[in-house]
Task: structure prediction
Amino acid sequence: MMEKRVLIVEDEGIVAMAINDTLKKMGYTVTGICSTGEDAIVTAAKTVPDVVLMDIHLKGEVDGIEAADKINKLYGIPVIYLTAYADDETIRRALSTGSYGYLVKPFNARELFSNIELTIYKHRVKMRIGSDTENLEGPLSTLPEAAVLVDARQAILYMNLPAEQMTGYNLRDIQGKNFFSVLGLNPSTTEEPCSLALEKIKGYTSIRPIPSVAVITTRGGKARRVCIRTNIIANSDGTIGKILLVMKPHTPDIT
Result:
């Protein structure tokens, strides 16, 4: 099973380290420990965790609720709030951001584990509900080339059998994860133009171009040079809904 990655946002150092130790004992990978909302937003973009544990009451100009809202909207990463206390207005603000969980300190390891697992599961299910991904699975499953379907925030929705064979990953292990984070996709040393540069997605600036020739890292750690053909699947309002990436080997592979 693929690792599950957690970002900790907590401004009390002792509490943060205790959570860090607990998560590692349970088998999670901690992508970072942040003490401010500003740092949390930057770190979430860089490390792309599966879930963020966010203390509501943070020092600085950006509190936990505002940071969580930005992380969710910009990167589609689910957030579980942590707090020792909260008034009614704070709770209403937290709920309005569409959070997946709410843990009151002190909490035990079992509560933490169940909230993280449920959040990751609910987030992956949510990505499929209300979409037309299922309608595309049939045609994509018959393609002889490796095909990966991602959403506008570059999270993996579907991949066919050739894509699983090329990358070494099973769909069930990486569904919902960031395409770039999983495959470590980088432009090839070959000078090829980008086939798609996502400048704006629903008002948010994209940070990742998709090159037409790139290097991916398979599950076994092998670097493979691939050719990528991209196709935009638009929403009814003309915004980007999904992106289909069709990959084939670009020989020779890197050894």
Q: What stands out?
A: The domain at 133-249 is CATH 3.30.450.20 (Beta-Lactamase). The chain has two domains: 5-128, 133-249. The longest helix spans residues 109-128. The longest strand covers residues 223-234.
